[in-house]
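User: I'm curious whether this sequence folds into something compact or stays loose and floppy. Could you predict its structure so I can see for myself?
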Amino acid sequence: MNYRVLYFASLRDRAGMDAEQIHSLATDARGLYSELRARHGFTMGEDRLRVAINGAFAQWGHTLHDGDEVVFIPPVSGG
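Assistant: Here's the prediction. I'll summarize afterward.
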C-alpha cells in the first residue's frame, strides 16, 4: 500500500525531509514506524510518540488503508 508520511521536529531532522510517499507492506502504524525506523535510523520508541492518521489521533494498532496520511508526533518543547 502507499502512504503519505509527515515528519515533525526531531523526526524531520533525522529523516532530512518534511514528508514522503511510502510504499509499504505494513498494515498498521506500528509496522509502518518499524520500517521507517530502520530506513531513517529513528531512535525514539513508540512510547514517546503519538500517531495520527488522516488528521485524527489513533492507536498504534489502527489498520491503515491505501492512501492514508500518517504522522508520527514526537514530544516538542516550546517557549
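Summary: The first strand starts at residue 2 and ends at 7. Helices lie at 9-15, 29-40.
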